[in-house]
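Good morning N.,

You mentioned wanting to compare the apo and holo forms, so I went ahead and generated the holo version with magnesium ion. This is what I fed in:
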Amino acid sequence: MTAVPAALEARSLTQRYGSLTALRGVSLRVDAGEVVAVTGPSGSGKSTLLHLLGGLDVPQEGEVWWAGTRVDTLDTQVRATRRAGQVGLVFQHHYLLDDLNVIENVLIPSRLAGQRDEARARDLLARVGLGGREAALPGVLSGGERQRVAVARALAARPATVLADEPTGSLDRANAQAVAQLLVNLAREERAGVLFVTHDDRLAAFADRTLHLLDGQFTDSVPALL
Ligand code: ADP
Ligand code: MG
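and this is what came out, ligand included:
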């Protein structure tokens, strides 16, 4: 079999916090162009998994691969530079820089990756419903608007992989669906692999498949959430 590298691959990830085991040997693969949803109750390990997949933490056991390269063994700074160009992250706390305006926030990853692209940033802002707000400072935005800026920022550097932790958590129904559709379109148009965590079955329905995390392991006992 010819091996086309996955956009993202995790092999047997185990992560403990003291005596608590948050992940127990989790493996997954997201192909280019594919959208995968991860659901699971609070405390099941979803955010821990995303932090490992995004290379923000290093697993105690197991491996993380981005586009065919193992990254958990890389030097932290090397991994951060690679992440800027290869992996778009949307985390639960949006971490916008309050003294940079909206478009400069969106441009952070592409600038770090050495490919600042203002036209792309403007297009993404328009697609998340924030056209015309480029010059606004984050402090004047609502929580939902800040979340949409964070989504645009995650996509700005044309990442091969997008990881999003409850990317629609502060959004109303219409904006949540628009963001989910944007992630799907990105996967299809740009061949990105997308993995997003959600509590909302209606959003999981946008994904090609859904993985259900329970107590640090994937369970296949839960049927598709459609
Ligand atoms: P989820 O995102 O599904 O709610 P998390 O990955 O945040 O789950 O947490 C999984 C488990 O690990 C929970 O029991 C949580 O309390 C614990 N946990 C998460 N982060 C830490 C941490 N930094 N220190 C100690 N325990 C943690
Ligand atoms: Mg979480």
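DSSP finds eight helices and ten strands in the chain.

Happy to go through it together on a call whenever suits you.

Best,
F.
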